[in-house]
Amino acid sequence: MQVLFDQTAERGTYLSWLMSGLCWTLLLWFVSGVLAFAIGITVGAARTVRYLPLRIAARLYVQVFRNVPLLVQVFLWYFVLPEVIPTAWGNSIKQIAPPWASFYPAVAGLGLYTASRIAEQVRAGINSLSEGQRKAADALGLTAFQTYLLILLPQALRITIPTLTSEALGLLKNTSVALTIGLLEITARAEQINEFTFRTFDAFASATVLYLLIALVLHQVAFQVERMFQIPGTSQNTTFRK
Q1: Domain coverage including residue 92
Q2: Which pTM was predicted?
Q3: How many domains does the chain have?
Q4: What are the b/e assignments for 69-89, b being 16+ CB within 10 Å?
């Protein structure tokens, strides 16, 4: 790993390159995650409502974004979108300065793809609840929005915490696709270090260690959250964890 402390042509070290990549990876993961969970919870709830057109629209979203490869979606947002929207808007997008020109399409691709996966887990969590809870909410005069917000979603999210943890970790690993559109995240920086030094093992081993450390921290945080919101009467020892 000594190569990380060598000087670059930019008067820095290769370690500083890797730390810059780490910052972009974490920022991309966080922004994409917020977008994915917001859309995923909304779409997942919409898949279980009684209003048929809304259920169909939510299902269509899931089928489209879950079944198109993530890399293709990122390319569509980066290369195709500016060409198919009105010219003035497309030119505005093309004039966005790097690295933000790569960051925003990566957020869109990662966020919408991950949201489709989260939606299915939220749907499964809601469907696992007894129908009697909806009927009780109806008897109390709660609106559909209140029923989901106050009764169904809080329970469904507690049930699906382990699988949502897996999605958060999967999103972290998927951020590496952003290198294909020019965002210098961890993997892209490791590739740069390899190209400048020809120390392939050192470059990618360092990136691997960074990914592993971040994943372990996220896993531990998620474990504590799961314990905090564990449904009474269930055992941690029987909780399924990927």
Answers
A1: 2-238
A2: 0.90
A3: 1
A4: ebeebbbebbeeebeeeeeee
